[in-house]
């Protein structure tokens, strides 16, 4: 058996796990934290404190996204250097790379800084715009991960 298959499957697992994490964070964790009043008894978190908790979760997830960005960059660079170029895989990998780095290095830190300034800063138009952009970036990341996973799976079957 070719040892390359282990790298390919590890890469696919990394992509699939990251897609799963993005989906769970966006569809399960965030709504649960921001609607904690439905779960907690005699304790209510306001939107600001819920945002602080969510910010801490995304800050920790950002470290994983750095690992993913490095892995995607290295794996796709090796495929490119071997002459196995695919426009869909390249485009989706570039999108994963850029959206994960934008989320981890730009949006999450800016949101955390603004949260550190207090509740007034999180109610500004600037914060709302940054937050909206980060949500859009997270959706682009999810879609890009899905496309990359499916395309790489298809290319494995062809090879």
Please write out the topology:
Elements: H1 4-34, H2 47-81, H3 87-116, H4 119-122, H5 125-158
Explain this structure.
This protein is an all-alpha fold and about 160 residues long. It has one domain (about 5-159). Helix content is about 85%, strand content about 0%. It is built from five helices and no strands. It has helices at about 5-35, 45-80, 85-115, 120, 125-159. Helix 1 (about 5-35) runs antiparallel to helix 5 and helix 2 runs antiparallel to helix 3 (about 85-115). The radius of gyration is 18 Å and the shape is elongated. The protein starts with a helix and ends with a helix. The model has no long low-confidence stretch (mean pLDDT about 95).
Radius of gyration: 18 Å
Helix content: over 70%
Compute the number of structural domains: 1
Structural class: mainly alpha
How much beta, percentage-wise?
under 5%
Shape label: elongated
Put simply, the count of helices is: 5
* Helix/strand order: HHHHH
Biggest β-sheet strands, sense, barrel = none
Model regions low in confidence, pLDDT < 50 over at least 5 residues: none
Number of strand segments? 0
Mean pLDDT: 94
Distance between the termini: 14 Å
């Amino acid at each position: 058996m070719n040892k390359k298959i282990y790298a390919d499957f590890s890469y696919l697992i990394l992509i699939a796990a990251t897609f799963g994490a993005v989906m769970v964070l966006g569809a399960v964790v965030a709504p649960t934290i921001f609607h904690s009043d439905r779960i907690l008894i005699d304790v209510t978190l306001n939107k600001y404190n819920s945002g602080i908790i969510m910010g801490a979760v995304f800050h920790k997830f950002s470290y994983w996204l750095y690992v993913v960005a490095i892995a995607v960059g290295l794996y796709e660079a090796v495929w490119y250097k071997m002459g196995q170029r695919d426009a869909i895989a390249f485009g989706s990998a570039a999108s994963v790379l850029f959206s994960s780095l934008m989320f981890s290095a730009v949006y999450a830190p800016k949101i955390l800084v603004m949260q550190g300034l207090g509740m007034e800063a999180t109610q500004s138009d600037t914060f709302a715009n940054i937050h909206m952009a980060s949500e859009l970036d997270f959706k682009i990341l999810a879609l890009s991960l899905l496309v990359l996973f499916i395309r790489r799976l298809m290319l494995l079957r062809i090879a």
